[in-house]
Amino acid sequence: VSRIAVVGAGAVGAAVARMAGDRGHEVVGLADSTGAVVDADGIDAEATLERKRETGSAGDRAVGALLEADYDVLVEATPTTLGDAEPGFGHTKRALERDRDVVLANKGPVAERYGELQALAEASAGRLLFGATVGGAIPVLSTVREFGVGDVDAVRGVLNGTTNFVLSRMAAEGLGYDHVLAEAQDLGVAEADPSFDVEGTDAALKFVILANVLADGDREFSLSDAAVEGITELPGSALELAGEDGRTVRLIGEATRESVEVAPRLVPENGPLSVSGTRNIVQIETRTAGRLHVSGRGAGGEETAAAVLADVDRLDPR
Amino acid sequence: VSEGSGRGTAHEEEVESYTVRLELADRPGELLSALAPIADMGGNLLSIYHERGNLTPRGRIPVEVDLECPPGRFEDVVDALREAGVNVIRAGHEAYGERATVLLVGHLVDTDLSDTLSRIESCTAASVLDFSLSAPEGTDEVSSARVRLAVADGRTDRAIDRVREVAEEKDLRVVTPLVSGGEP
């Protein structure tokens, strides 16, 4: 049994708090940006989330109180931020300094400050896992690790469901970019401000994390090292022309030990990377076993929470 | 949607394109003197490609020269190069065995599509097989084109780099093919 402290009470943090009990773990605290609830005997996740819905805050205690509480694993699920990656980086740092394990769902620290993060983890008795940051429930990082980082030359594919939904629907229905984006917003597939997704930033962060893992300390990547091009205002006529030739366009990322790139690319309509809707797919280029494909739901509260809890289980094998 | 096809090179005499791989000493003026025999023998220089930073084990600079000339004159060009003391590594007719499709998006008509295509062709071992233009909003608005290229063997990356360069100069968006990993 791991005693878990969850920082961040959005879709992922809330789902971790709800699902942890069924996986045999105990949640000793939950914090959002306004406050925290802390209980060494375990909190009531449903009651806390109900309170958050009613009052807008998870609890009356300071977030710092949860960071200083007695727990085994900190689950960092605050929103991804760029640049200094705060507050996620600070939370992670504090936990590692206290020799606690950390499981990240927040991409910011791993994409923007990988070197510092690894140095903190090396100096700590606590361990650091971040499988949920790449591909939600799809086992991307664990597959790369199980193959051995040295055996993997490249990881490429689709790691953003919003843009994949927009492109595949534009191609299938012959609709324009703005029309499909508005639909995606109605369906909750795209956010009110979709720029993080459609400009390629979200996908780029995931491929930056993959490049950091592949480079294995020989080189450090952050978002500014990635060549990123999004799908904003791509005209329907481009997808139509691609379709006439048996091809389609997908937002494809690629990470190697040397580079990170995200851009709309032409791919065969029936090729492995042309998944439809919000589905994600990753192609892992291995030396010993050729190409592997892993596909599934790359985002969502429960999907990502499942990946977080898989990491928690890895830290506490039973 | 209008369809077009690749333009053949119209000269008085039938010409074909060839690639010559040279190795040059790292001295000023070396390239210029190496190229002189090509024009002297009636060849037309298409492009010169030098992979920056790449040196041969003997410290020489590898250079690829694309040229066109009548088929009967090519051997004369190579002989003239060798007589001038240029180290010719390999010379021959390029097999345009590779195919690459790219999409161009933007103000294609305003930026002179025909010029765009010929510039893609001019500096790489690539020739435009065909293109389709789609301008549903009219030619004053953003339009799209699909361009299919025949590329000399092993030089698809280089051809795509050239497409990117030309597109950047003309402020066009380019969607390039995923060369590795896209096929079923």
What are the salient characteristics of this protein?
heterodimer; A: 318 residues; alpha/beta; 6-stranded mixed sheet; 39% helix; globular; B: 184 residues; alpha+beta; 5-stranded antiparallel sheet; 4-stranded antiparallel sheet; disordered N terminus
Detailed description of the structure:
The complex is a heterodimer of chains A (318) and B (184). With 318 residues, chain A is of the alpha/beta class. Chain A has helices spanning 11-20, 45-55, 63-67, 88-97, 107-112, 114-122, 140-147, 161-173, 177-186, 195-198, 201-215, 236-244, 301-315; strands at residues 3-7, 26-31, 36-38, 73-76, 101-104, 128-129, 152-158, 227-228, 247-255, 260-268, 279-286, 290-297. Chain A is globular. The mean pLDDT of chain A is 96. Chain B is built from four helices and nine strands, in the order ββαββαββαββαβ. The chains are: A alpha/beta (318), B alpha+beta (184). Chain A binds chain B through residues 154, 156, 233-238, 240-242, 244-245, 247, 249, 252, 263-268, 270-273, 283, 285, 291, and chain B through 101-103, 105, 132, 134-136, 142-146, 148, 173, 175-178, 180-184. Strand 10 of chain A pairs parallel with strand 9 of chain B.
What's this model, at a glance?
The complex is a heterodimer of chains A (318) and B (184). With 318 residues, chain A is an alpha/beta fold. Chain A contains 13 helices and 12 strands.
Structural class of chain B: alpha+beta
Strand count, sense and closure of the main sheet of chain B? 5 strands, antiparallel
The strand count of chain A comes to 12
* Contiguous helical run count of chain A: 13
Distance between the termini of chain B: 29 Å
Relative helix content of chain A: 25-40%
The rounded Rg of chain B comes to 18 Å
The oligomeric state is heterodimer
